[in-house]
Write a structure and sequence with these properties.
Elements (H helix, E strand, L loop, with lengths): L1 H27 L6 H34 L15 H30 L8 E8 L2 E6 L34 E4 L1 E5 L3 E8 L4 E5 L4 E5 L5 E6 L4 E7 L11 E7 L1 H19 L6 E2 L33
Parallel strand pairs: 1-5, 3-11, 4-10
Antiparallel strand pairs: 1-2, 2-3, 5-8, 6-7, 6-9, 9-10
Helix pairs in contact: 1-2, 2-3
Length: 311
């Protein structure tokens, strides 16, 4: 019986290692597109190797002790005090490993969350709501206008920009589509209108909850162009599956042209009133955008649009 139990422990160990390995292979198949992502991968792999070796050794020892000290139907159990040197040594080794890994990971963590962005960084505000992402870009003045929850609208002023704030007159909003330039620092300011959401782009190696009432910065510099999926990593409601967006990384010249185009569209839609307007979600420059008629409802790509009232 002792041998069977030991074999079970070792079998579960082998299965665990196999499934973890498959998960790591799947993650690494999505190559990181930032320098921080490369550092995060290196830190993750180092942590996994150290903890993986400790896990395997611990399970091998557990199985051996189960077999070695199994009940053989003779003798009685006896009390042993233990070995102080082994116990203290094990605790010290564990503490050194954990503290060492934490210290090694501090630099990349600080670069993403704590280090101030340079003056020329692109700043974009992302506000999660059930069930879409609102991407707000500042206008040529580079400043965001003030917002107020009392001014939230389902369509148009979706983040509640205060109309009489001059800084917000040139802000524009796009839903579910984030466009950033390659090779230029980007600072995302994450917010939420209602519940916890989780902003997650696997290729950035960044995952951060958005919390109502907080503004949480994330910083990165993209090193490759392309289109990447934005997922919500929190179960935020019944239509959580619809909370899907896209991030497009483009060359800096293309990004400048795209910004100018969005400003021109916004100015035309505002009719010169200066009221904050939502940029059309069906903009061809916005990858994966749903048709304009679905933008306000936050419909996922491929879902049918809601029928017009009275139809």
């Amino acid at each position: 019986m002792g041998l069977l139990l030991a074999l079970l422990v070792w079998g579960l160990m082998v299965l665990s290692v196999y499934f973890v390995y498959q998960g790591v292979v799947a993650m690494l198949a999505l190559a990181p597109i930032t320098t921080a992502g490369v550092e995060i991968d290196a830190q993750f792999q180092l942590t996994l190797i150290i903890t993986g070796v400790a896990f395997i050794l611990a399970q091998l020892a557990l199985g051996w002790f189960i077999y070695r000290y199994r009940d053989r139907g003779q003798g009685q159990a006896r009390y042993i005090h233990g070995n102080n040197l082994v116990e203290v040594g094990g605790a010290v080794i564990t503490a050194v490993a954990f503290v060492g890994l934490a210290v090694l990971g501090q630099k990349v963590w600080a670069d993403v969350h704590l280090t101030e962005s340079p003056a020329d960084a692109v700043r974009i505000e992302i506000t999660g709501e059930q069930f879409l992402w609102n991407m707000r870009y500042p206008g040529p003045d580079g400043r965001f206008g003030r917002t107020s929850p009392e001014l939230y609208e389902a369509v148009g002023n979706t983040v509640g920009i205060v109309p009489d704030d001059p800084a917000g007159a040139d802000d524009f909003i796009i839903q579910n589509n984030l466009v950033v330039p390659k090779g230029r620092p980007v600072e995302l300011i994450l917010r939420s209108k209602d519940v916890l959401h989780g902003f997650f782009v696997p290729e950035l190696r960044l995952k951060q909850d958005t919390v109502p009432g907080l503004q949480i910065p994330l910083r990165f510099t993209a090193t490759a162009t392309g289109e990447f999926e934005i997922a919500c990593a929190e179960l935020c409601g019944l239509a959580h599956y619809r909370m899907r967006g896209f991030m497009k990384v483009v060359e800096q010249d293309e990004y400048a042209g795209w910004l100018a185009e969005q400003q021109a569209l916004k100015t035309g839609e505002a009719g010169g009133t200066g009221a904050p307007q939502e940029a059309p979600a069906g903009d061809p420059a916005a990858p994966g955008a749903p048709p304009a008629g679905e933008a306000g409802a936050g419909a996922a790509p491929g879902e049918p649009a809601a029928a017009p009232a009275g139809s």
